[in-house]
Amino acid sequence: MREKRDEILILRITKTEKNRIYEKMYGMGIRSLSAYIRKMALDGYCLNLDLPQLRRMSYLLQNCSNNLNQVAKRVNESNQLYAADIEDLRHRLDELIGIGKQILSKLSEL
């Protein structure tokens, strides 16, 4: 169960500091000041992982799961499994594995 956030912390800053905080926050793509300040205070840094490979991988995973569901439905209805369906799934999974390796490679460079 998630711990309730019921404590308040008051922080005094200058207008210039506030502007810099917001610039950095928006630069990271974070829209919640509370989340940004909490992350920075607790961990000391925020990472903005905008990897196009992650979006591609997510898209392929969604396609793969849809195709697998369609194949399972067809097999349950007709008791037939087609080699083309398996080959298509194998091709998509191979592409997912390749993208996963690219992502891991980029993350290891950080």
TrEMBL record:
It holds the Pfam family NikA-like. InterPro entries: NikA-like. It comes from the Bacteria. This is Plasmid mobilization relaxosome protein MobC. It comes from Faecalibacterium intestinale. The gene is mobC.
